[in-house]
Prior knowledge:
- The structure holds two protein chains of two kinds.
- By secondary structure, chain A is mainly β.
- Chain A is 0% helix and 57% strand.
- In chain A, a hairpin with a 3-residue loop joins strand 4 (31-38) and strand 5 (42-50).
- Chain A is globular, with a radius of gyration of 13 Å.
- By secondary structure, chain B is mainly beta.
- In chain B, strands 2, 4, 5, 9, 10 and 11 form a six-stranded mixed beta sheet that branches. A five-stranded antiparallel beta sheet of chain B has the order 1-3-8-7-6, with no helix packed on it.
- In chain B, a hairpin with a 2-residue loop joins strand 6 (56-59) and strand 7.
- Chain B is globular, with a radius of gyration of 13 Å.
- Chain A binds chain B through residues 4, 31, 33, 35, 41-45, 48, 50, 55-56, 91, 93, 95, 97-105, and chain B through 32, 34, 36, 41-46, 49, 89, 93, 96-104.
Amino acid sequence: DAGVIQSPRHEVTEMGQEVTLRCKPISGHNSLFWYRQTMMRGLELLIYFNNNVPIDDSGMPEDRFSAKMPNASFSTLKIQPSEPRDSAVYFCASSLRNEQYFGPGTRLTVT
Amino acid sequence: DQQVKQNSPSLSVQEGRISILNCDYTNSMFDYFLWYKKYPAEGPTFLISISSIKDKNEDGRFTVFLNKSAKHLSLHIVPSQPGDSAVYFCAAASEDDKVIFGPGTSLSVIP
């Protein structure tokens, strides 16, 4: 298995633009998580899905952030409009039980 | 309010010595605990875990200890090697599969 796949690996965009981050979980895993890592807050859970259904989105910072999981093999995290304070590394992870497997992350820079 | 705390942002240890990374949690509903290791520009990788019914779990050079009454766990690495230099995240999981991460401790093993 290729592991959790995220794209793009790097994204640089201007303030106000829409950003879409993509994730392909490990086949057979039933839970998917989106995290944001910053120097100030460490690794923050934004949202997680179980069997493609959003279970807890309390970590989503505000309405500019949205996430979807249309099927078991794909998820997106969208930021619209983006702001400079959204600059961070965004990780996707999937799991079957408790151990999560992380993707390599997407480094987002909003200028 | 942080549910999982790692009060030492960084730690330096001499090669060959023991590294002890500490973690405290506040939520008594957590029943499974994990340690992840993260190298720069990579996603976190699972290292070792422990169920709340145990007080110790060992895997090679890595041992995790759990003190439920104190809501405290620690990761021991012995002997420490330069390749162990990384950020270590403590994480706690509850029955709903939600995993909360601590802010991380950056370990430097000095040759």
